């Protein structure tokens, strides 16, 4: 149990375009989902926390207008990178957790390359 | 906010030896400390975790110790095997007070030499 999927697993887009990444909890209801960004050989940096039906809470330094997060249901959250630039190229990982549970279940990640 | 420091950044051990990775945290309100193993291009996998009301936890070859007074916790891997080679991350959470978000350490690249 506690499986989280992400789609797509990798994507290449041109500079200036937008790309949407989906995160789904397949066998449980995720009241909270988290989005991380991981650059090569670096740690996971939390971008935002989203709760179903409410606005996401962004970490300091993360542009909310550039990284749009929607958590419309208990099994789906989306991250849209708007007007992507080469410096947005990274590994984006989501995680999901149940109500008031510490453990986060991670998705397989999405590798974004902006050319 | 919470800050988690992790050492060493790289660790090379001979197969069969033990490996120890250490982390310190800054916020005394943190109460949950998981350890993750991440292989290249893959998702982080939880290998062990500990709550603040416990000083030590063990699962076969893996153990974690927590010193709340000193605000540090450590991962111990005994009888290391080549398949233990990966990047290991520690993390800390304040639970409900911070919406259960995790703050990660910088990672330790472990290489187990056959």
Average pLDDT for all residues of chain B: 95
- Any idea what the radius of gyration of chain B is? 14 Å
Quaternary structure type = heterodimer
Helix content of chain B: under 10%
Query: How many individual β-strands of chain A?
Result: 11
| Low-confidence segments of chain B | none
Computed over alpha carbons, the radius of gyration of chain A is: 13 Å
How much helical structure, as a percent, in the residues of chain A? under 10%
Sketch the topology of chain B as an H/E string, one letter per element: EEEEEEEEEEE
Kindly estimate the percentage of residues of chain B that lie in beta strands according to DSSP. Answer: over 45%
Characterization of the model:
Chain A has 115 residues and is mainly beta. Chain A is 0% helix and 51% strand. Chain A contains no helices and 11 strands. Chain A has strands at 4-7, 10-13, 19-25, 32-38, 45-51, 57-58, 67-73, 76-81, 90-97, 105-106, 110-114. In chain A, the strands form 2 sheets. In chain A, strands 2, 4, 5, 6, 9, 10 and 11 form a 7-stranded mixed β-sheet that branches. In chain A, strands 1-3-8-7 form a 4-stranded antiparallel β-sheet, with no helix packed on it. In chain A, a hairpin with a 6-residue loop joins strand 4 (32-38) and strand 5. With 114 residues, chain B is an all-beta fold. Chain B is built from no helices and 11 strands. Chain B has strands at residues 4-7, 10-14, 19-25, 32-38, 45-51, 56-59, 62-67, 72-77, 86-92, 103-104, 108-113. In chain B, strands 2, 4, 5, 9, 10 and 11 form a 6-stranded mixed β-sheet that branches. The interface between A and B is medium-sized, with 24 and 24 residues.
């Amino acid at each position: 149990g506690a499986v989280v999927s992400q789609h797509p697993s990798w994507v290449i887009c041109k500079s200036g375009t937008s790309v949407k990444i989906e995160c789904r909890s397949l066998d449980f209801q995720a009241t909270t989902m988290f989005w991380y960004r991981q650059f090569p050989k670096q740690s996971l940096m939390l971008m935002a926390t989203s709760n179903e039906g409410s606005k996401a809470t962004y970490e300091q330094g993360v542009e909310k207008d550039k990284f749009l997060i929607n958590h419309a249901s208990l099994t789906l959250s989306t991250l849209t990178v708007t007007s992507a630039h080469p410096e947005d190229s990274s590994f984006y990982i989501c995680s999901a957790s149940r109500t008031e549970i510490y453990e986060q279940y991670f998705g397989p990640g999405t590798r974004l390359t902006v050319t | 906010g919470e800050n988690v420091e992790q050492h060493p950044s790289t660790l090379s051990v001979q197969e069969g030896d033990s490996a120890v990775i250490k982390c310190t945290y800054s916020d005394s309100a943190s109460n949950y400390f998981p350890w993750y193993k991440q292989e290249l291009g893959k998702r982080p996998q939880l290998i062990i975790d500990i709550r603040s009301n416990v000083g030590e936890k063990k699962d076969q070859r893996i153990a974690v110790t927590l010193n709340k007074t000193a605000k540090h916790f450590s991962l111990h891997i005994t009888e290391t095997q080549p398949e233990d080679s990966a990047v290991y991350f520690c993390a800390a959470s304040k639970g409900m007070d911070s919406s259960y978000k995790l703050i990660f350490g910088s990672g330790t690249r472990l290489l187990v030499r056959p």
